[in-house]
Each structure stands twice: as C-alpha cells, then as structure tokens.
Amino acid sequence: MNTQKFFALVDCNNFYVSCERLFRPELNNRPVLVLSNNDGCVIARSNEVKALGVKMGTPYFKVRGLAQRHGVKVFSSNYSLYGDLSHRVMDVLQQLEPEVEIYSIDEAFLMLPGSRFVDLASHCHTIRERVRQCVGIPVSLGVAPTRTLAKVANQFAKKDPACAGVCCLETPDAIDHLLVQTGVGDVWGIGNRSVEKLRRRGIVNGLQLKQADDDWIRRQLTVSGLRTVMELRGVSCIEIDDSRAQKRTLVCSRSFGRPVKDLPDLREALSSYVSRVAEKLRAQRSLASSLHVFLLTNRFRTDLPQYSRTLTLHLPEPGSSTPHLLRPALKGLEQLFKTGYLYQKVGVMLTGLVPAGQRQLSLFTANASSDTELMTAMDQINRRWGRDTLCYGGTGRAKTWAGRQSFCSPAYTTRWEDLPQVGAGSEKCQENVLPDGIIEGS
DNA sequence: TCTGGGGTCCTAGGACCC
DNA sequence: TCTGGGGTCCTAGGACCC
C-alpha cells in the first residue's frame, strides 16, 4: 500500500479567458485576451494568443496592432464574473475532496493520501471531468509529493497533450525527468532576480537547482529559496496559510483613466477607495490600526516631473467605520499633495489589522455603537442592491478620473439584467464584429 | 495617447531598552 | 587614542506570487 502523501494542484486553464468563453462558446479555438484594470496590460491569454507571442503583462498598446490583425477578441477584466465562477469551481472541489486549500482565484491544492487510491491519475481525471461538467471551466491537475513539485507537474499537464490535463509524479525518476526539462524561472518561487544569480552560477534547470549547494542557496536566495530547493528534493516545507482568508493588510488603489492634477479629483478618488477598503475590512470583521495614503505620478513618463510619497497615520484607536478612516485619509492626502504634477494614482492601505472583537478603546472614546449600526446597515443595502447603492457624497458621481474599461463583458452570473438570454433571435448571443476585424466586447 | 492591483514573506537597519 | 553587548520592535525595501 502506498502510504505517501500527495499534493494535487488544480489550476484553471487560462482562467479569465475560459470565463469569457463560457458564455461565448463561438470564441472557443479563437484568440482571446483579457486586460488588467484600466485596460493597461495583458493578464490572460488563450493558447492562440500565446502562440502569437504575446507575453503575460505586456502593455496592451504594444500589441494592439497585432491583436487587430489576427482578429483577437479583447476583454476588459470582469472580476464579478471571474470571482463567481471561481467560487463555483472551488465548491465542486470541496464536494469531492475533504482537504482543499484555495491558493488563488484559479488554483487550489488538494491533499491526497496515496493509500486512498489504487490509481491516482484516474481519480484526477474524474475530478477534472466533474469540474468541467458542473461549471464548464477546463482545469489541469499536477500531482507530486510537495506543492512545488505539484506546480511543476501542473505545467506539464497543461502543455503535453499526452497528459490529457493530468500529470502525476509518483517516483523519483519521474520527478527528475521533468525537472531537467524545467527552466529555473519556471519553478514556483524563483523570480527574475534569482534566475540571473543562478544562471551566473551555471544553474539553469530544475534538476540543477535541486542539487545546488545549501549554503550558497541560503546566502543568495534567503531561506525562501532554500525551502524551494528542499521542496524539489521531495521535502514538503511550504505551507499555505489557511488563515489567508483573514488578510493582514488591505489595499485599494487604481490608476486614473487620465492624468489628474487637481486636489478635488484626488479627494473623490481617495474617498471611493477608502469606502471600498473599509467595506473589505468590515467583511472580514477586522479593525485597522494604521492607515497609509500614497500618491504618485506616472513613472513611465520620464519626461515629466516625478512624485511619489506615502504617508503613514496611526489611528488613535483601531476602527472600521468609513468616516473613521475617511477623515484622517483626506487630511493625509492634503499633506501629500503638491501642485504642478500630473498624478497617475492615489491609494490607501490598511495595516495593523485586529479582530473586531478585540477592540481596545481609549479612555475618552465616545459610544461607537451607533457608527457600527450605520455601517452594518449600509453594507447590507449595498450587498442586496449592488455596490454604491448607498455611498458617501465625497466619492463623487461623475468620477471623471475613473479608469478605462472599454471591452467589459456582462456580469452574466451576478446581475439580473445581465443574465444570458437563450432562444432564437437573442441579440446577446450574437457576436459584434467591427469593420477593422477587431471584435469589441458586447 | 496608452504600462494592473492586491497580496505575502524575508532582511537589514534604526531606535530603544537594560 | 579609547565609545559594550544583546535583545526586541518597527519600518522600508526587495523579491516573489497570481
């Protein structure tokens, strides 16, 4: 009997693209890409777009021409849709397996004791089929004795057609066979900086990294790097913090759709972000002890004067009500603001988060319960009727500074008026092809 | 013209204490 | 001339992830 423990990494294939295709099946086998907020960078690519050589994170303006020539369907990111479909995928996994660690919006680790299975691979194919059947999102599974190796296996599950979406590494030989074909930069935890250090030492593939000298790794790549190496050797030592549902910091910040130079616009934007971050804070039932406001210009415009400052404010006592955070934030912004710059972004970060139950009141605290009730009521209304149904006046109505979202698909699964219509003559099901060959989102 | 947003962990260095 | 040693806490910045 196999007493070994295995990790299976379930990863949704080109997740955001798969979400968009789910309601637009005519886009299957056609090039599709999804852009970041403000339509800035490419953050998801279909295989067809990858084949065109478009890299992850490329600024969209650099590939716009290429996209148009190849009839690439372009989408702005639609997080209500992706978040909802992510929940559905995770629900299915949790129905099938007792131990599921949700790692990101499109990935989860499953703990699979080897003893439970005669055939690990066929069990994984079953999981894959169930997710496709219940949600319609294609996933790949990589299975191995550690999370880092499961990540490696997953890459092969995706790219080797012979795997049919599942790759199990059950023997040392199988592991080394894949590691020698894996570039160090494709190992989870090894970023560009480390790739360069390793290359100078002649370490370019996963097997060489696995065999590297511990002391050298410890010195050059810190303990995080050493953990990665241990994981390649089959020693599981990277834990996923399950308490990550409770964030230790919360941020809200966006690039503007156009450069902003005046304080009133900055105040509106910052007020919106503070309202949003306070909502997130209350949703996880925490209070913030410190608040950081930051303001910066466009770092790519080297021809313009640059400015980037952060101001940290320690709150007199931890809190979560929007006005409690709004007042110091706006005061901080006024201290940071200087005329004569074209600003690209303003944002707020909350740190020193403590559970709401552990509130330490100051000697002079007024009764805060009326504030709490107001916030609870406001959050309930906004959850029921949609974001910003009730909002603070300072957040502005016109929001002329807001980012671009030119190609956004409907919130098919989370907004009544966006429910897909089925039947003959339904306009929502029809594709809208513009004369120049590029297809804009409906 | 146009370059995301939101996180975590680790380390070094400063402030402070005894 | 000469200026301790060790501990904690905090913060900023680096590296990495999706």
TrEMBL record:
Which molecular function term from Gene Ontology is one that the record holds?
damaged DNA binding
Tell me the keywords, alphabetical order. DNA damage, DNA repair, SOS mutagenesis, SOS response
Cross-referenced CDD domains:
PolY_Pol_V_umuC (cd01700)
Q: Which GO terms describe its biological process?
A: DNA repair; error-prone translesion synthesis; SOS response
One Pfam family of this protein, by short name?
IMS
Residue ranges occupied by any UmuC domain in the UniProt entry = 7-191
| Signal sequence residues | none
User: Which GO CC terms are listed, alphabetically?
Assistant: cytosol
Q: Which family does it belong to?
A: Belongs to the DNA polymerase type-Y family.
Give the protein name, as stated in the record.
Answer: Y-family DNA polymerase
